[in-house]
Amino acid sequence: MASRARMKPIRRPAAKNRETSDFEPCWHLLRSAMIDIHTKNAGGLSFEALYRASYKIVLRKKGELLYTEVKSFEEAWFRDHVMPPIAELITNNLINISLIQAPGTSLHERRQMGEKFLRGVRDAWVEHNLNMNMIADVMMYLDRAYTAETKQPSIFAATIGLFRDHILRNTLSASSQEQLTHEFIVFDILNAVVLDLINMERDGDIIDRNLLKKITSMLEDLYETDEEIDDQKLYLRVFEPRYLQASKAFYRRECERLVRDSDAGTWLRHCRRRLIEESDRCGTTISLLTSEKISKVIETELVMAKLGEFLAMEGSGLKGMIDNDRIEDLSILYELIARVDPSMAPLKATLQSRIMELGLEIEKNLKNTDFSVPANGGGADGDDGADAVDKAKAQPLTVAAQQTAAAIKWVDDVLTLKDKFDNLWSNCFQEDLVLQSSITKSFSDFINVFNRSSEYVSLFIDDNLKRGTKSKTEAEVDAVLDKAIILLRYLTDRDMFERYYQKHLARRLLHNKSDIDTEKDMVSRMRSEMGNAFTSKFEGMFKDMELSKDLSENYRDHIRQLGDVDTKKVDLGIHVLTTNNWPPEVMGRSANQEEGSKVQCTYPPAVKRLQDSFYKFYLKDRSGRVLTWVGSAGTADIKCVFPKVPGKETGPLSKERRYELNVSTYGMIILLLFNDLAEGESLSFEEIQATTNIPPQDLQRNLASLSIAPKARVLLKEPFSKSVKPTDKFSFNTQFASKSMKIKAPTITAISKVEGDDERRETERKNDQTRSHVIDAAIVRIMKARKQLGHTALTTEVITQLANRFKPEISLIKKRIEDLLNREYLERVEGETAVYRYLA
User: Which residues form the Cullin family profile domain (predicted)?
Assistant: First the structure.
């Protein structure tokens, strides 16, 4: 068998160091191109050829070598070409004014020297950044195939970081730089120069903002390492901390100077200006990254550091701002405090203190004001007694009228103060709810410190409603009612207000002193604010008046059907009042009079017949009802005839005179006594009292209205004086004359006046009795629902339930619990301390 010979292929000689031979020409091409890029001679370079060269190197697995060579080239370039020009800019003078801050250099020289240095750094950075971008484009495949796989920084990151390592972190020493005497790091000099220029601008000098923006942008683009971690920017890690620290020192010194040399208003405007400046500086010069942090520095060092001292400054502090309505100052102050303390503690405390001071000052001024002379526009009480006084003569007010005028002034002053702080709250404090609560609490505190506040608020409403709302627009009427409700919200003793308001409302309704629609509107607002229980009696009074109006019409129809001519001549208007709805004073029960001791006055026979007629008519459809006539609450129109006065030939007294006189019911009874009296005869006070059985106090008031008031002096009093005494005698005034056909005698009982001390004590005593019953009811209601409850829990629930009506005293609650225990509504639980059980 023949064997085949196997032929071996011809072995070609291997290319010795082929990879090395490929790297050298490619690197030479790239290096030459990099030199052209740095020397601004890159116009003739071919990007395609350069990219192919770097591609070929990386493809031959020489990426690491190319990466190292590029970095080495750039480092050498920095050492030989970039650093020397910058080093020449750093002189001992520059270091002295920036790092050492040695004196003796003018502001202009400092600015010029610093900006020249920064321009050198900026120009080097701009050129380096541009060059590195072009080189990174050429080395694109190196980043894609080598650095990405080996997880090394990109060629751009590695080369751009050379500026950080070989420029900013470079240490200049005396050996390397002949003009220097010490070692310094370039970055420290750069930071110091930038901060110095910023402080110059803060002091009012003009600097190159665009230059500083380039420098800070450079620091934002550079990182601590080539890994380029976001929170490790040189701006955040090196420059910003120094900037904030330098700013703290600057503003701390500035605050000390403002405390020493300026007032609070100047400080406020300066703080606001600095905040605006720093915000603008961050946007145009530094970096928006620092905006919130530098604002915090100003808030801490310029606002909060000496806030208490500025607010307490005499004349220009918060007290002066409030007293002089410095709207702009207070607006700035609110904005500043809102930034540093959302709780508003400094502003809140001072506001509350000032409101309390001004409120107590109102009370103090009230005691020092002379109310003996009536104010322009009439007396403070606004009642019909003014019709009986000659307005042409400025006569002094009575003690009661002075007290009422004081009450109205107190309320007006409180409302003026409230308007003032409402205006501040709206225009300065941006309707801040925290401050609103503080203002409300302060007003409530000082209003309730004044023990007559409930009475005065009721008198204020009474005065405004009696003056009439017909001349006011609907908006003005609403404003008055709203003010009243505002004051009512502040009162804690609302049960006392209810008692006074019931008395004043009764007089307005019975004497037709106000508009009924406005009265109902007022009560409706109270119901919305306080609940139905608070206004139930007021609404009952309105219902009585409406039913009485219908009842009077029906009675008049009944009279017209009668055949009695005399009865037909009488026009009777009846108000049938429900006892529980109306105050005791109006119902004829005086403060010192018990229910069972009331004495009915003696009515004239004609009036008595009329009463019997109405009573019979009333009981026709209402069997079992009892009517009690209240002489102190009604009025009567009487036709009076005054004879010709002998010896008078001219003037009104020369002929017979007829007038229609409007008097109280008691006044009518008194005048009818003089019908049967012979001319020249008189009746003594005691005789009138014995005949009519009118209570002495009411008799004195009515006789005074008929014998003292000039325009209604139909009786003559002997001896004549301004007060009625039990020894006085009265006779018919035949020489009475008036220009008016209809005369209204002063309705003394319609005057709403401030209570005297004795009346006040009696009102408080009655109110305490009522409170005892209300607390009893609350305790029983709570215990009936809970069955068993501890003393503390029961007390807390009672206070909570009654808070909208009044604030019960703990001692009174304890007393009422003891009383209910004695009356066996409650019992103590054996074996447990202060625990009660409800007894059904």
Answer: 452-707
Residue 117, judged by CB atoms within 10 A of its CB (0-12, 13-18, 19+), counts as buried
If you search the block for the tokens 């019911």, which residue do you land on?
665
Whole-model pTM above 0.70?
yes
- Cα–Cα distance between 449 and 453 in angstroms, integer? 8
Question: Do residue 375 and residue 455 come from a single domain?
Answer: yes
d(CA 175, CA 130): 32
Q: Domain of 273?
A: 264-336
Q: Which helix (H) or strand (E) holds 828?
A: strand 826-828
Q: Any residues with CB less than 8 A from the CB of 790 and at least 6 apart, and which?
A: 834, 835, 836
Q: Residue 176's closest CA among 78, 88, 76?
A: 88
Do 746 and 784 share a domain, yes or no? no
Contacts of 717 (CB under 8 A, 6+ apart): 703, 707, 708, 724, 728, 729, 730
How much is the pLDDT for 566? 52
Question: Is 617 contained in some domain?
Answer: no
Does residue 252 form part of some domain?
Answer: no
- Supply 395's token pair: 């006569």
734 and 804 in a single domain? The answer is no
Chosen domain end from 186, 211, 232: 232
Contact 155, 136 (CB under 8 A): yes
186/203 same-domain check: yes
SS3 of 381-413: CCCHHHHHCCCCCCCCCCHHHHHHHHHHHHHHH
Out of 532, 554, 584, pick the residue that ends a domain.
532
Residue 494 has pLDDT above 90, yes or no: no
What is the spatial distance between Cα 333 and Cα 326, in angstroms, rounded to a whole number? Answer: 11
What is the Cα–Cα distance from 642 to 612, expressed in whole angstroms?
Answer: 31
- Peptide linkage before 719 cis (omega within 30 of 0): yes
Asked whether the beta carbons of 90 and 172 are under 8 A apart, the reply is yes
